[in-house]
Amino acid sequence: MPKQKFSEDYLEDTATALLLKINRTNIFPPLLKDPEEFISVKCKKKRKKQTPNAFIMCRMNVHKESERIGCKYNMRIISKATGKLWKDARSEEKNEYIKLSNKVKSYNEKLLLAVDNVEQNPNENEYTPYHIFSAHEAESDEALTINQSNLNFINFNEEEFLFTIQSFDLFDLNYNDFCN
Fold this sequence. Notes:
Elements: H1 8-21, H2 41-46, H3 54-68, H4 75-88, H5 91-120, H6 135-139, H7 141-144, H8 148-154, H9 158-167
Helix pairs in contact: 1-4, 3-4, 3-5
């Protein structure tokens, strides 16, 4: 998509018009407060270590508020409006975003530690639906022997088991071979 070129006057006028439409109380204090909302799905998958700063979080709130009122503006206009809001904001209002930025950074660090821990210990929580034989077990006849106790463990009827095996024409077996 080609980049749109806006004159400075157009940017200024449109940003001012947007500021007149939005509800400033949804920007200061921040409407979006959950740290998870600031870490995108892309960032979670790529394990991005950098989190948005206080100004970017303010811009995200301005964007959300403009969408809420039905104004879909280009991000250059959103950024211009946010810059004006940020410039005029009191230090207490900015501090709310700084605190939120620190919370998001802390949340992201915990998330990264959890992902790193899973990657370093991949087998710890891995589900194995059946026993995987070691090379030593697989070489022994004991691992391959099917007997009554094995069939009870499988939890279905012996005749059904034999019928299933015979239907594949793998073996010429009869029921008595397994009942010893």
